[in-house]
Amino acid sequence: MMVDTSILVHAANRQSTSQQAARRFLAGLTDGKKPWFLTWPIQYEFLRLVSGGGVFYEPMRSEEALEFLAALHRSASLKIVQETPAHATVLAELFKANPEIKDETFRVLHTACLMKEHGIAEVASGTGEYRRFPGIKVIHALAR
After folding, report:
1. Average pLDDT over residues 46-58
2. How many other CB atoms are found less than 10 A from the CB of residue 23?
3. What are the strands of the beta sheet with 122-124, ordered from one edge?
4. Cβ atoms of 120 and 42 closer than 8 Å
5. Please, what are the domains in the chain?
6. Residue 69 contacts by C-beta under 8 Å, 6 or more apart in sequence?
7. What is the secondary structure of 27-66 as a DSSP string?
8. In this structure, are residues 101 and 95 in contact, taking their beta carbons and an 8 Å threshold?
9. Would you tell me which of 11, 39, 106, 130 could form a disulfide with 22, CB atoms 3.0–4.6 Å apart?
10. Considering only CA atoms, which of 12, 74, 73 is closest in space to residue 38?
């Protein structure tokens, strides 16, 4: 299961009403044996949002945000996925099928491409942005 930025942000945000749900969800992944996935762009977006991107009333210090990610990286079941040689082909396929994509949605397109390349069928997200991509099941981790 891929974990989207929204889950990380809610888990780190003390003011979020979904913080406990996001933390419980992440703990289930980090403590488990089943592989779960992140991308570097998701992690960079997390850093951008929590360290001054207008998400938190008081942004996280860089050390605190990096430690949050480091704790995730200590999970033996975490895998970081990257582009494969098939990336350009998958990108063309998904973008042609979704020509209305623009702005921030390109981040979701990139993640959907990586998921398809690596055979990842589920994404944990606090939004419905991934529904446009056939074959991707959205897990609403914040509603748990």
Report:
1. 80
2. 15
3. 78-81, 36-39, 2-3, 122-124, 137-139
4. no
5. 2-143 (3.40.50.1010)
6. 43, 46, 47
7. HHHHTSSS-EEEEHHHHHHHHHHHTTSSSSSSPPPHHHHH
8. yes
9. 11
10. 73
Q: What dihedral angle (degrees, nearest 10) is formed by the CA atoms of 108, 133, 86, 110?
A: 0
The answer to whether 46 and 3 are in contact (CB under 8 A) is no
pLDDT surpassing 70 at residue 56: no
Of 136, 120, 135, 125, which Cα lies nearest the Cα of 3?
125
Residue 19 structure tokens: 């913080």
With residue 110 as reference, give the H or E element that holds it.
helix 105-118
**d(C-alpha 5, C-alpha 1), whole Å:** 13
Running DSSP on this structure, what letter comes out for residue 128? S
Residue 5, amino acid: T
Provide the pLDDT for residue 141: 87
Give the pair of three-digit tokens for residue 131.
């529904």
Q: How confident is the model at residue 27 (pLDDT cuts 50, 70, 90)?
A: very high
